[in-house]
Amino acid sequence: MKLSGAEILLRALELEGVEKIFGYPGGAVLDIYDRLPFSPLKHYLTRHEQGAAHAADGYARATGKVGVCFATSGPGATNLVTGLATAQIDSVPVVAFTGNVPTYMIGNDAFQEVDTVGITRPITKHNFLVKDVKDLADTVKKAFHIARTGRPGVVLVDLPKDVTREITDFFEEEYKTPVQIRSYKPVLKGHPGQIKRAAKAIASAERPILYIGGGVVSSGASDLVVKMAEVANIPMAATLMGLTAVPGNHPFFLGMLGMHGTYAANMAIQESDLIVAIGARFDDRVTGKLSEFAPNAKVIHIDIDSAEIGKNRAVDIPIVGDAKLVMEELLPEVEKQVAKNREFYAVREKWILKVRSWKERYPLWYEPSDRVIKPQFVIEKIWEVTKGEAVITTDVGQHQMWVAQYYRFSFPRQLITSGGLGTMGFGVPAAIGAKVGRPDKTVFCISGDGSFQMNMQEIVTAVHYNIPIKVAIINNGFLGMVRQWQGIFYQKNYSQVHLDVQPDFVKLVEAMGGVGLRATKPAEVEAVLKEAMAIDDRPVVIDFIVDREEDVFPMVPPGGALHEMILPSYGKKKEKKAV
Amino acid sequence: MDRKCEQRKHIISVLVENQPGALARIIELFSSRGYNIESLNVGHTEDPSISRITMVAKGDEHTIEQIVKQLRRIIDVFKVRDLTDKKKLDRELLIVRVNVETPEKKEEVMRLVEIFGAQVVDVSKDTYTVELTGDEEQVDAFLELIKPMGIREMARTGRVAMVRALQGETFGEQKE
Ligand SMILES: Cc1ncc(C[n+]2csc(CCOP(=O)(O)OP(=O)(O)O)c2C)c(N)n1
Ligand SMILES: [Mg+2]
After folding, report:
1. Is A76 helix (H, G, I), strand (E, B) or coil?
2. Is B89-160 a CATH 3.90.1150.10 domain?
3. Range of the domain at A78
4. Which chain B residues are Cβ-neighbours of A307 within 8 angstroms?
5. Is A397 in the pocket of ligand 1 (CB under 6 A)?
6. How many domains does chain A have?
7. Which of A116, A176, A223, A310 has its CB 3.0 to 4.6 Å from that of A77, i.e. a possible disulfide?
8. Distance between CA A89 and CA A528 in Å, rounded?
9. Residues facing A345 on adjacent strands
10. Is the residue at A370 inside a domain?
11. Are A55 and A44 in contact (CB under 8 A)?
């Protein structure tokens, strides 16, 4: 069949199982957009290319499928950059297509030309510049394969305009044959010997802990990991990216660890004699001061990316492989070991009791108020009103940490947040992508007054396509997280963090065609949330005017060890500093 | 000193798809992750679609292990091997132009050329241009001895290396 490059691209996307695309047109992609109306692919016109990249990312995180975005050359491509970097650092499968100037003009500083593959090389798993239409189909196929296999990530395909115009043969049957990339063969199955060693170590440790990362969620290993914790009596702590792997109310679950982790999670890690890290990467926000991180623990590290193993923390038992495939082998081994070892439960019981006592003595806590709305109270209410079943996206700041602490998640992929890059402006477009991918779910974006203003134009996109996302602005009139740091570590020298001049978010959202609501008193919170839940044809934004100077606790000061947390005041009844 | 922290020169051999993006990714890896690279050499292998990159990088064991692992992550990379402690053939090409204004200097340079098995490949009224192939120590030693003559200009290729055949397979280790 003779097709143009543009037609080949669209047909190939269909064959890849793509249904939704987020994008923005321009000169270099005119040929693609010209063919788009004749394709069954549904395209969402975002109001900014950054929005397209985040929406593709949110779609991918919510569904586990590859997210796809389009942009034109030059400014279109550079506007994608933040979004692609955000997805890549959190290992999200996204394939981005950018137009570029025709091949014969490349390198001439032509109109709207940038070196897109050069700019995006450090923020993609791989990228391609297609120079010949004959290579196009094969490149698209490779791009999807690379994005979704191994450690998932971002692949960008740069398409010069002439490549999308020229005509060549396209063989569908050939497209459907398996991909061959001779230099790329990710290791998926764990080494059996290592798995046996790991099982022995798990069964014989006195104070083990599971340290669960985003890889558990993305590989679909959540159930197996929780099962292992139950079989072997092991407490669990999760990273921000791994939070949804474990049901929030699980008795062995200690919540998030790290800078704003719970007291119990951080203490359990510090005191453990064995850390089982699964799909996690010992990020500095998790470990605190690395040299004092879990000083007496042996480490089992399961990760698909061998470069993560031993990068930050020395590892005793490394297992390279896909978390799910490794867990499928490891779980039965652990079961065997546990069955063999009768005294096992007695030894473990002491540890479980100790961890539980930490959890009870130093729970998450905030001072309730019936006068001002506490931000944590809003999160708790959202949890209640959505019955703990909503897909939550966040922006970045204090509100993000409160979501991680106070929304109790019940299924994997339920939390969509920019962990590695911490990108303000992620929440709204990611919610659009998530809702497009999971129309069956309530999708709630919990944002900050600062972050919301970074991509609020995307509310128009949601109005355009009747995408009924809910947005809660935790409006503290501050760049709250920065204010908190200035408050604690810079003697309250609040510099450039006041957001006193602000749009009227209710009017603004109404002007964009959405529904704007506001709550200023605790008593109004529930009613306004119920009102929002009743709207299902348009986006709703609720402006929650909250306590301005609430801080996020616990907090491990930068450079401090995990056990050196600053704790909440507990109504001044308990000591402030942990011992 | 603890061997793990000891800074050493490592010679790393990489087989990679012969693609412009591949080389760029490898070089950017060094700058973005803050690794030091001393020399880098690229050329075809017996298969023209595959290039061999030989690089010399300085670092402790942990850093070098990281470099090797990060290199293996690159999609276009087939194989990466640290050849430092392997029995290997390890060569570098030097071209150097030296001053030989006096007959004594001419004689001295010719003597060194002979001892090192080098070759004079270009001659002018007052300079000789010498070509030498050898391992890094030989090239360094030669330069050390020739330096007093006055070096006008020089170029070194950086090292290329290959494991000796008696070590069994020629490259060994798979990508992972
Ligand atoms: C794009 C971007 N710019 C700057 C920052 C640094 N930063 C981190 S949190 C934060 C404040 C966020 O304010 P807001 O959205 O109101 O959330 P709050 O902390 O008040 O809940 C800033 C500026 C960032 N993470 N992302
Ligand atoms: Mg704020």
Report:
1. helix
2. no
3. 2-175
4. 66, 69-70, 72-73
5. yes
6. 3
7. A116
8. 36
9. none
10. no
11. yes
Question: By mean pLDDT, which of A324-328, A514-518, B60-64 is the weakest?
Answer: B60-64
Is the model's pLDDT at B3 over the cut of 80? no
Domain ranges for chain B = 8-85, 89-160
Q: Does residue A259 carry a catalytic annotation?
A: no
Q: Are residues A297 and A381 in the same domain?
A: no
Residues A145, A207, single domain; the answer is: no
A146 neighbourhood in chain B, CB within 8 Å: 75
Beta strands in A418-512 (DSSP E): 443-448, 470-475
Q: How do residues A190-214 score in pLDDT, each as one tens digit?
A: 999 999 999 999 999 999 999 999 9
**Listed residues A145, A175, A205: the one ending a domain:** A175
Other CB atoms within 10 A of residue A170 CB:
20
The model's pTM is 0.95
Q: Are residues A393 and A301 in the same domain?
A: no
Residue A117 contacts B, CB cutoff 8 Å: yes
Look at residue A575 and tell me whether its pLDDT is greater than 50: no
Whether residue A288 is found in the same domain as residue A348: yes
Strands (E), chain B: 8-17, 36-44, 50-59, 77-82, 88-99, 119-123, 127-134, 151-156, 160-163
Which of A460, A452, A392 minimizes the C-alpha distance to A428?
A: A452
Instruction: For A140-193, write each residue's pLDDT tens digit.
Output: 999 999 999 999 999 999 999 999 999 999 999 999 999 999 999 999 999 999
Nearest CA in chain B to A305: B73
Q: What's the gap in Å between A495 CA and the centre of ligand 2?
A: 14
- Cα–chain-centroid distance for residue A291? 27
- Asked if residue A347 belongs to a domain, the reply is yes
Point out the residue among B24, B66, B176 whose CB comes nearest to the CB of A187.
Answer: B176
CB distance A533 to A544 below 8 Å: no
Residues ≥6 apart with Cβ < 8 Å to A213: A238, A239, A241, A242, A277, A278, A279, A280, A281
Please compute the mean of the pLDDT values over residues A226-232 and round it to a whole number.
96
Task: Say yes or no for a CB contact (<8 Å) between A183 and B28.
Answer: no
Residue A569 forms part of a structural domain: no
The CATH number of the domain covering residues in B8-85: 3.30.70.260
User: In this complex, which of A117, A185, A307 lies closest to B73 when CB atoms are compared?
Assistant: A307
CB A551 within 8 A of CB A574: no
- Amino acid, single-letter form, for residue A460: V
A301 vs A278: CA distance, rounded Å: 6
Which amino acid would we find at residue B21? Answer: G
Coil, helix or strand at residue A264: helix
Ordered strands of the A298-303 beta sheet: A253-256, A236-238, A208-212, A274-278, A298-303, A317-320
Indicate if the pLDDT at residue B174 is higher than 60. no
Q: Say how many Å lie between the first and final Cα of chain B, rounded.
A: 30
What ipTM, to 2 d.p.? 0.90
Of A175, A201, A234, the one marking the end of a domain is: A175
Q: Which of A65, A112, A441, A526 is catalytic?
A: A112
Residue A187 lies in a domain: no
One-letter amino acid at A214 equals G
Chain B residues within 8 A of A320 when measuring between CB atoms:
176
Q: Of A7, A20, A22, A49, which one is the catalytic site residue?
A: A49
Report residue A304 as tokens: 């698909």
Q: Which atom of ligand 1 lies closest to the CA of A479?
A: 13
Q: A206 near A271, Cβ under 8 Å? A: no
Both tokens assigned to A44: 């969402």
Based on the domain organization, do A102 and A134 belong to the same domain?
yes
Residues A146 and A28 placed together within one structural domain of the fold = yes
